[in-house]
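Possible race condition, two jobs.
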Amino acid sequence: MTPEELLGVTPALLAKSILHRRERLAEVIPEQLDARQDELVAAEPLARAAKEKRDGINAKVANLKRERSEAQNEARALFKRAGELRDKLQAAGGIKDPNPKWAKEKLDEKLQKLEQELETNAGNHKTEQKYIQEMKNLIRQHDDWVEKRSSSQEGLSEMDASFKQAKALLEKAQKAHDAILELATENEYFHTSYVEHEAHRRRADGRTKRLAEALDSSQRGIEHWQKIIDDGFDRLLSNATRVKEGGASSTVRNRKPSKTDATQTKGRQRKSKSKSKSKPEPRGEEE
């Protein structure tokens, strides 16, 4: 459109064009808004479910970490206590070996004798079962003797109990750690899923809000321009009419005088006064 054509556009035509544009937007936006709202409704539960699963795994991991830390701390304390008891027993005269070499040799001798009898004496499966049971009894009797010998030493039973409890706690800590590693992959999957669904929800929410604002703006624009068309354009053309009649434009009227303008005005005023003072007074006719 050329400048001449643009200047030839009447206010009525311009207002009707704007009104038509607003009406067209008001017709198109609702369909898009419904689509975005449906998208938002579908995205919200997916993002919420992914977040709940991720947070649930995070809670499990936090509990396992706490369990692992507590077990490790208790185990360290028990190991320290057992070490102190061992040092104390050694300082008091040493710790007796609850399973000395002679006892082991005596057990081995009895077991070898039973094995020899089992190999040399013919018998059925019941006889073999009898020899095997006797071997188990010998081993159990030896273990009971070793345990009794250990518990008879003052402080040794407490030391052994501390070591056993500490080892059990370390096993508990290891199980908690292994469970954390198993949950790590699952947690990564649900976190990635949540991030993707949440990003989709945010986009749908942003589009829905922008379309709702655009629809509201279009509806208000329709009311505004329809009112202008119905009431006429006199109020809008008041500035143009004033300029056409020779008045100052709104830009000139609203412009504040600058320092340069003020200085020039004062200079002109001083020059005017100076000229009026230097002008000679008219003389009368000579007599």
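Job #2 (started ~2 s after job #1):
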Amino acid sequence: MDLSIVIPLFNEEASLPELTAWISEVCHREKLEFEMIFVDDGSQDGSWKVLTKLEEGFPELKAIRFRRNYGKSAALNQGFSVASGDVVITMDADLQDSPDEIPGLYRMITKEGYDLVSGWKKNRHDPITKTLPSKLFNRTTRAISGIHLHDFNCGLKAYKSELVKSIEVQGEMHRYIPVIAKWAGFGRIGEKVVTHYERKYGSSKYGMSRLVKGYLDLLSITFTSKFGRRPMHFFGSLGSFIFFIGFSIAGYLAYEKVFNAVYKMTDRPLFFLALLAMIIGTQLFMTGFLAELLVRSSSAPGGGYIIREKINL
């Protein structure tokens, strides 16, 4: 199969008929063998009923319904697991992403050799409460990751199938897929300016809590990508350094005691600082040692999402 289009959704019943017809028209015009995989992330409206009706007219439509809301990352992760296309494209279900971008994204993967192509909503139709935090977020992510993308959080992206089958997306980490991909060895990451439309139906699911969670996930990805398979390098190095500082202070105090005998060691605040540093250093070193044992003896966890219903899967 040429193409899998993965579409996470939450309470988007009004936009689904138009979106499905639009995607189908574009893919048939381009003569692509494709599938549309909708992942209903616990919608509370009639989204699932709409999908069951659309399935009658669109045999390419497949769908998964979660029993509750797990978040966009969980929906994407589940969609990736069942996608069978050589190229996987993701887009939001709110009609703000244009299916007309599909051919261009597809060609950048198949013809130009990119592992991942991220959309850039250069002219964005969103309120300042979304655009300003997004700019701060993108700037921080660029600085930490070294990936020069303008819009990490754009839902419109294209991937090689090998890439999406090699990664796992959790928490709010969907916005960091380019970062995860880079650290997984997929370095050919490109960008394409895409059309962004104003929201036609419903309301935005964005909130400030997602921004906070996003930054926490960035720290988590940075740490686990660099030290997830070698925690001893982090905890062991830090613990050894702190222990060395404490040991050096204790050695200095011992020298003063033996050769000058001016103070009792226990009368000096530095003694307790040295003792504390050596204890903390030892604990950090042991933390790294135990973490190393766990990494070597454990396997990666599964998704753990409870699926309620499926269509054509």
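The domain at 3-228 is CATH 3.90.550.10 (Spore Coat Polysaccharide Biosynthesis Protein SpsA; Chain A).
Logs attached separately.
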